[in-house]
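Task: sequence design from structure.
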């Protein structure tokens, strides 16, 4: 192991003599720089963007290592991680996003199912395999002025869209394999909190996301065209989708090679204290399959009063296929409903094409108990196919005891109790409803 006093210049010389490339990451476990050693000031006022980026660039040049943010409030614009460089926010460390929009240089980026010139996030990583970002410090997006501007624009023009008001995300990670994000606190993001695009084998564990009620467009975790993603042991309190599975949109979305399916997604052991839904498919998404949501708790309180366990947004302008989704072992403490499947007509555009059709199949809810507002409802756009939906081993108390499941083919109801009474779907709801023994 290297002595702690070794200089970066000496380390670089060793790497060079060893015949290793500058980004070989050979010495990553033993190499660390604290941003204050490069002059960063944690007073909450000094802009530290260039000094933090300098630390990242030094670690990359040295073959990789950890950039540590110590106790303090470090104001920064967008920073860009590089291969082999880990980011660690230590106890009581805050990386706080500046509210000056010029500190987020506009470039082509992935946003809402496509690429366009827009803002980067506060923390960015592109093609950084084996990426590690850890807490227990905090990413603070300084969201209040961005939210206020968006609300003002909406009041002036109800047709205002999310992208009409530029607001930085807290973290954007794209085209990375083997990613671990652990122990971080996310707060007051101006827009989405954590956006993953075209990543695989991602573990998000023990994070905390907190947004005040009414903060617009503050999704918790956006999983965009990714595979093998696990979100575990995390707490989310926000005002938009807690976890959103995203992709492309539009009549030709299935031909979009930039948007592979979301698949092999696992949400486990999470607690939701505020938000409209645990997991949403959409609003831009094409193929989503093999999703498991389990061992989660919906906390009691006004923030979860209208929350759904699963929401499937069916766009009338996009062919979509949602399949093999399981929701099991969930405790409800006043959440809104189990399932919400419905057309999503916000900003849709057929672009001169005929309306496409979508399919939802093989969705299972099991081992769910507690109190909620209603069981939920399922309906699609004309021509959509919704089939093989199963509810089993469910015991809930609800205000509205009549599920709306009329468009489901092959609906399975097994050991379902609503307000203490066994529920069997009326035959009139669907021609293929059956009760499984």
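Answer:
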């Amino acid at each position: 192991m290297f002595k702690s006093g070794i200089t970066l210049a000496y380390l670089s010389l060793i790497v060079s003599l060893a015949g290793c490339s500058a980004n070989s990451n050979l010495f990553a476990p033993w190499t660390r720089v604290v941003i204050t050693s490069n002059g960063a000031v944690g007073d909450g006022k000094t802009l530290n963007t260039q000094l933090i980026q300098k630390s990242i660039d030094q670690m990359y040049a040295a073959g990789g290592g950890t950039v540590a943010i110590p106790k303090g409030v470090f104001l920064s614009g967008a920073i860009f991680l590089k291969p082999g460089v880990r980011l660690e926010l230590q106890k009581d460390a805050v990386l706080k996003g500046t509210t000056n929009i010029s500190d987020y240089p506009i470039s082509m980026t992935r946003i809402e199912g496509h690429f366009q010139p827009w803002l980067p996030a506060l923390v960015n990583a592109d093609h950084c395999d084996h990426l590690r970002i850890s807490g227990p410090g905090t990413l603070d997006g300084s969201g209040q002025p961005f939210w206020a501007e968006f609300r003002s624009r909406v009041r002036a023009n109800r047709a205002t869209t999310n992208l009409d008001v530029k607001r930085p995300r807290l973290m954007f990670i794209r085209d990375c394999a083997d990613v671990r994000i652990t122990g971080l606190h996310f707060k007051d993001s101006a827009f989405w909190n954590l956006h993953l695009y075209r990543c695989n084998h991602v573990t998000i564990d023990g994070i905390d996301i907190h947004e005040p009620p009414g903060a617009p467009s503050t999704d918790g975790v956006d999983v965009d065209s990714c595979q093998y993603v696990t979100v575990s042991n995390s707490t989310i309190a926000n005002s938009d989708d807690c976890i959103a599975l995203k992709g492309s949109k539009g009549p030709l979305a299935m031909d979009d090679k930039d948007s592979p399916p979301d698949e092999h997604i696992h949400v486990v052991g999470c607690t939701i204290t505020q938000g409209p839904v645990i997991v949403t498919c959409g609003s831009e998404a094409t193929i989503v399959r093999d999703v498991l949501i389990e061992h989660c708790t919906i906390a009691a309180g006004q923030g979860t009063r209208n929350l759904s366990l699963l929401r499937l947004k069916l766009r009338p302008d996009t062919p979509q296929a949602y399949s093999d989704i399981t929701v099991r072992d969930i405790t409800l403490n006043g959440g809104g409903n189990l399932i919400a499947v419905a057309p999503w007509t916000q900003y849709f555009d057929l672009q001169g094409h005929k309306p496409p059709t979508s399919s939802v199949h093989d969705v299972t809810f099991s081992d769910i108990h507690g109190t909620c507002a209603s069981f939920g409802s399922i309906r699609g756009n004309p021509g959509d196919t919704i089939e093989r939906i199963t509810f089993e081993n469910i015991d809930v108390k609800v205000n509205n005891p009549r599920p709306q499941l009329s468009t489901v083919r092959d609906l399975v109801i097994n050991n379902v109790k609503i307000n203490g009474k066994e529920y069997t779907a009326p035959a009139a709801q669907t021609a293929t409803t059956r009760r499984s023994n």
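The radius of gyration is 23 Å.
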